[in-house]
């Protein structure tokens, strides 16, 4: 079995997520070749053929041109699967390639399943197994679903280029805006509970939130005590949230709080009390003192 | 200027889903149906453009499905679309994204639309394929995941949402198709008087057989709930070791740490 | 009667979404401040909620009663004070004009009531007269082509916000009963019309009630609804037949929300290592509430259908209002019980609803008045 992996590169850098493609191919037990629109100073640490197009000529975002580069590589490699990350780059490009090849696309694969690929559906509440009906297929894999593999070594680079008229012109990047707190949209929330002890300790929790690129949350008692503003409150009288990662620091897990956060994708609780009710909804319960553990964790990130 | 917005009707995502008789999709009984959230952004943006252009523009809303999708079309008409197209299909869930895109492209091909709006994906199937595939079928310029949209002098300036909140700015010449993402706008409520008035707007019905020419390229072989979460892991021990353990788990189980 | 099911479904979905996104998040704040923010009332206007029952030719939506009730059942999933804002325009504050008004009166008031530009209010109750027509004291004495009104009206919902009052007054003191009563449309700002202070109520904070005082208030004869003396009480009864069904729907909507709050709590809250919903004594309370809500819902919808067929619903609307208002109080009481101590705490919506719904057994005819109406109708039919 053979895969053509489509690497990712942005603002002059190879993106680490590229190694998740290798992780996926590893799980499939497939041979790999890679196509990257990047630069030869930023090569992935892996063996195999690398079709390398120069991003300074081909553009970091130029879907019509990148599509052509991929189609050319498909011609040479004749892979069973063309694999993208399900990212702003991958979901934009993959259907264009699949349509030109007239092959099946399976989007946002989270795992391999008997008879096909496992994908999420219905807002990630349910799963489907999807089976391509064509000999080749285009796959996009969910970010984070496949552990990255960095086999090391050097790819054998084949420089490629293409020239295509495009009616889409990329004009540049805009940096992310600093936003007001909107916990409902945060991907990561780190919440301070009564267990942080006093107002002066809140920055310890906020530092972890920052290190994870997330927002600070707070439980009811912490807000009532005036340690954190109400706009950060999670729970029945605050906001109901469902981030990808929720870390509850010194939150006992009163029912009002649980109602506001239990739908989070992954929940970590840090609590001295092994029997605290927060443990019931947590994927990981770290039994430790919040003020000792949280700075230690932040230091490792 | 002719504008098309494509919408899907999906179940209320707070519903409890269970597999239907074939085991390949959800049981459709007892579900409340809504306009796909991403499509609401598409409709709002299309209506804003329609308002910007005034009488020189015509905005059509299209949906594929059984009778119930008439409600989603009416909602879009009440939000400000001019006319509706209902592709009547009693089994839209059995079509793969390739076929759905083929149906839309077959309808749109001779209509001369300058701009087509879709949601970036559906909330139920979530393939994020249909919009881009329609653009490929029609040979339209295309950009996905829009959080910013402006139109002037025949050119679309779009802001695409990239990872980490960065935006990529692209310009597209018409004819073009864009797929819309949360954050693009705040969809208006269709007001009750406008819902009443929407009754008078035309909805053209087209049997799906007239537009469906493609065979599916992929099949859903199973629809099921995720494997049940086992009990949580409990970590105890020395703080430094615990932190290492947790970082390892987060790398393995979440997309947050890489 | 549902004229167009898919159109109604779109309306119901819109109201559902509005309730979830724009009303429920603000209900606690509105209660605490005893005020609904202007921007929310503006949004309710824009949505078209004030015009539910007003005919289309006067810029309303012209919903049938069954359609109106389907919308109200959704709207009342949020605090009843939001329904109260539109309640008088949809119900008692506008219906007198809709049912018995002259064309001129309809043209003057209904489009503005439908858009919510003005608020209508219904001034029947007096300090010494509730549903007893004979003891209605407010007088209207003819003086040329005007009437001079004197009296006090009590517990008038939305009076502080109202621009037009439907005031019931006795035009003929020689007729002690209903026949001596006429209904007047009195505009805010008419000399002699003034308001008392806002009452401090048990619940429904954010909705306002006060006295309306008439002190030599001169209004033209053309202000009588239908420009016909002596039929005011009949107008009031026709208004109330319809609006009592509406209030019964309000009760069903509120009860649905309250039960939902209690159910969620029962499923989440653990005692003795299991959710309290697993205990049969809790289950009994949940089941009784569910069954009673279903019964009331069926009564309300059936009554509405009968009304839409232009049949007399005097008995049915009183049955619905009696049962639904008593029912919602039982449901609220059980909900407090299910929440235990939390049900007595302000943080939980159930505590607020418990106080809010108590009013439903009192206004637009107490439960006892409904019993009298039902029984009188029964006896009249056999004698």
From TrEMBL, chain A:
Domain Electron transfer flavoprotein alpha/beta-subunit N-terminal span(s) in chain numbering: 3-174
Alphabetized SUPFAM superfamilies for the sequence: Adenine nucleotide alpha hydrolases-like, DHS-like NAD/FAD-binding domain
A matching Pfam family: ETF
Family matches, as SMART domains: ETF
InterPro entries, alphabetized: DHS-like_NAD/FAD-binding_dom (IPR029035), ETF_a/b_N (IPR014730), ETF_a/FixB (IPR001308), ETF_asu_C (IPR014731), ETF_asu_C_CS (IPR018206), Rossmann-like_a/b/a_fold (IPR014729)
Domain of life: Bacteria
Keywords: Electron transport, FAD, Flavoprotein, Transport
Record protein name field: Electron transfer flavoprotein subunit alpha/FixB family protein
Gene3D superfamilies: HUPs, TPP-binding domain
Family (UniProt): Belongs to the ETF alpha-subunit/FixB family.
From TrEMBL, chain B:
Xref: SMART domains: ETF
Keyword match Zinc: no
InterPro entries: ETF_a/b_N, ETF_b, ETF_beta_N, Rossmann-like_a/b/a_fold
UniProt key word RNA-binding: no
Domain of life: Bacteria
Record's keyword terms, sorted: Electron transport, Transport
Pfam families reported in the protein's UniProt record: ETF (PF01012)
Limits of the Electron transfer flavoprotein alpha/beta-subunit N-terminal domain: 23-215
SUPFAM superfamilies listed in its UniProt record: Adenine nucleotide alpha hydrolases-like
Family as reported in the entry's similarity comment: Belongs to the ETF beta-subunit/FixA family.
Protein name from the UniProt record: Electron transfer flavoprotein subunit beta
Lineage: Bacteria, Pseudomonadati, Thermodesulfobacteriota, Desulfuromonadia, Geobacterales
UniProtKB/TrEMBL annotation, chain C:
Cofactor needs: FAD
Alphabetically ordered keywords of this record: FAD, Flavoprotein, Oxidoreductase
Ranges of residues in domain Acyl-CoA oxidase/dehydrogenase middle: 121-217
InterPro entries per the UniProt record, alphabetical: Acyl-CoA_DH_CS (IPR006089), Acyl-CoA_Oxase/DH_mid-dom (IPR006091), Acyl-CoA_Oxase/DH_mid-dom_sf (IPR046373), AcylCo_DH-like_C (IPR036250), AcylCo_DH/oxidase_C (IPR009075), AcylCoA_DH/ox_N (IPR013786), AcylCoA_DH/ox_N_sf (IPR037069), AcylCoA_DH/oxidase_NM_dom_sf (IPR009100)
Domain Acyl-CoA dehydrogenase/oxidase C-terminal: 231-378
Keyword Flavoprotein set for record: yes
One Pfam family hit: Acyl-CoA_dh_N
Residue ranges of domain Acyl-CoA dehydrogenase/oxidase N-terminal in the record: 11-117
Assembly with partners or alone: Homotetramer.
Protein family: Belongs to the acyl-CoA dehydrogenase family.
Stated name of the protein: Acyl-CoA dehydrogenase family protein
Species: Geomobilimonas luticola
């Amino acid at each position: 079995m053979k895969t053509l992996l489509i690497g990712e590169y942005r603002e002059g850098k190879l993106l680490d997520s590229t190694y998740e493609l290798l992780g996926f191919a590893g799980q499939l037990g497939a041979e790999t070749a890679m196509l990257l629109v990047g630069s030869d100073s930023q090569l992935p640490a892996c063996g195999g053929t690398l079709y390398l197009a120069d991003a300074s000529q081909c553009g970091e975002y130029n879907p019509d041109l990148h599509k052509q580069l991929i189609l050319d590589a498909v011609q040479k490699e004749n892979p069973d699967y063309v694999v993208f990350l399900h990212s702003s780059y991958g979901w934009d490009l993959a259907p264009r390639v699949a349509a030109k090849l007239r092959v099946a696309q399976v989007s946002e694969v989270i795992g391999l399943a008997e008879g096909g690929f496992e994908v999420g559906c219905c807002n990630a509440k349910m799963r489907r197994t999807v089976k391509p009906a064509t000999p080749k297929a285009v796959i996009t894999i969910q970010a984070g679903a496949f552990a990255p593999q960095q086999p090391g070594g050097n790819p054998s680079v084949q420089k490629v280029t293409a020239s295509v008229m495009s009616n889409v012109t990329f004009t540049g990047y805009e940096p992310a805006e600093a936003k007001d707190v909107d916990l409902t949209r945060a991907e990561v929330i780190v919440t301070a509970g009564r267990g942080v002890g006093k107002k002066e300790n809140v920055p310890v929790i906020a530092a972890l939130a920052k290190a994870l690129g997330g927002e600070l949350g707070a439980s009811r008692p912490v807000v009532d005590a005036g340690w954190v503003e109400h706009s950060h409150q999670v729970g029945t009288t605050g906001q109901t949230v469902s981030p990808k990662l929720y870390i509850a620091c010194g939150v006992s897990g009163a029912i009002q709080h649980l109602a506001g956060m239990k739908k989070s994708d992954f929940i970590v609780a840090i609590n001295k009390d092994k029997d605290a009710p927060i443990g019931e909804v947590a994927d990981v319960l770290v039994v430790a003192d919040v003020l000792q553990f949280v700075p230690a964790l932040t230091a490792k990130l | 200027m002719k504008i098309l917005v494509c919408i899907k009707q999906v179940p209320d995502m707070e519903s409890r889903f269970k597999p239907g008789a074939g085991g390949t999709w959800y049981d459709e009984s007892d579900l409340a149906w809504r306009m796909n959230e991403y499509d609401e952004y598409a409709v709002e943006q299309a209506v804003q453009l329609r308002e910007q252009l005034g009488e020189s523009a015509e905005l059509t809303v299209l949906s594929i499905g059984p009778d119930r999708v008439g409600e989603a079309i009416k909602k879009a008409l009440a939000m400000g679309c001019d006319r509706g197209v209902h592709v009547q299909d009693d089994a839209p869930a059995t079509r793969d994204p390739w076929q759905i895109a083929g149906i839309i492209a077959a309808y749109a091909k001779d209509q001369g639309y300058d701009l087509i709006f879709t949601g970036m994906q559906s909330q139920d199937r979530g393939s994020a394929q249909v919009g881009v595939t329609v653009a490929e079928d029609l040979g339209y310029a295309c950009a996905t995941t829009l959080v910013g949209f402006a139109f002037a002098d025949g050119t679309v300036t779009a802001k695409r949402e990239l990872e980490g909140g960065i935006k990529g700015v692209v310009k597209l010449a018409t004819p073009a198709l864009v797929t819309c993402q949360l954050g693009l706008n705040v969809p208006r409520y269709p007001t009750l008087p406008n819902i009443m008035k929407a009754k008078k707007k035309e909805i053209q019905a087209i049997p799906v057989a007239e537009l469906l020419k493609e065979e599916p390229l992929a099949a859903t072989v199973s629809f099921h709930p995720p494997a049940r979460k086992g009990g949580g892991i409990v970590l105890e021990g020395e703080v430094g070791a615990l932190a290492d353990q947790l970082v390892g788990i987060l790398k393995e189980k979440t997309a947050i740490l890489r | 009667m549902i004229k167009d099911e898919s159109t109604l479904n779109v309306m119901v979905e819109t109201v559902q979404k509005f309730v979830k996104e724009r009303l429920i998040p603000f209900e606690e704040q509105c209660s605490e401040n005893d005020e609904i923010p202007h921007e929310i009332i503006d949004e309710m206007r824009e949505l078209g909620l004030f015009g539910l029952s007003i005919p289309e030719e006067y810029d309303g939506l012209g919903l049938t009663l069954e359609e109106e009730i389907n919308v109200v059942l959704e709207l009342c999933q949020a605090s009843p004070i939001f329904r109260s804002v539109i309640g008088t325009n949809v119900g008692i504050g506008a219906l007198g004009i809709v049912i018995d008004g002259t064309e001129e009166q309809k043209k003057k008031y209904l489009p503005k009531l439908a858009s919510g530009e003005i608020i209508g209010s219904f001034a029947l109750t007096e300090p010494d007269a509730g549903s007893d027509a004979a003891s209605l004291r407010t007088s209207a004495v003819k003086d040329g082509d005007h009437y001079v009104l004197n009296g006090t009206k009590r517990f008038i919902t939305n009076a502080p916000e109202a621009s037009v009052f439907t005031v019931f007054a006795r035009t003929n003191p020689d007729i002690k009963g209903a026949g001596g009563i006429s209904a007047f449309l009195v505009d805010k700002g008419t000399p002699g019309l003034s308001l008392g202070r806002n009452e401090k109520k048990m619940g429904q904070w954010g909705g306002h009630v006060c006295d309306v005082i008439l002190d030599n208030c001169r209004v033209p004869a053309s202000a009588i609804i239908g420009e016909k003396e002596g039929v005011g009480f009949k107008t009031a009864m026709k208004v109330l037949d319809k609006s009592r069904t509406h209030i019964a729907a309000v009760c069903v909507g509120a009860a649905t929300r309250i039960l939902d709050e209690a159910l969620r709590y029962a499923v989440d809250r653990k005692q003795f290592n299991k959710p309290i919903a697993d205990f049969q004594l809790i289950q009994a309370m949940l089941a009784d509430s569910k069954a009673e809500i279903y019964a009331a819902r069926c009564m309300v919808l059936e009554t509405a259908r009968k009304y839409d067929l232009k049949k007399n619903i005097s008995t049915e609307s009183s049955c619905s209002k009696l049962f639904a208002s008593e029912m919602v109080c039982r449901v609220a009481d059980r909900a407090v019980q299910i929440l235990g101590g939390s049900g007595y705490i302000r943080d939980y919506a159930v505590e607020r609803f418990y106080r809010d719904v108590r009013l439903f057994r009192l206004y637009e005819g107490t439960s006892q008045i409904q019993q009298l109406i039902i029984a009188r109708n029964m006896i009249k039919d056999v004698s």
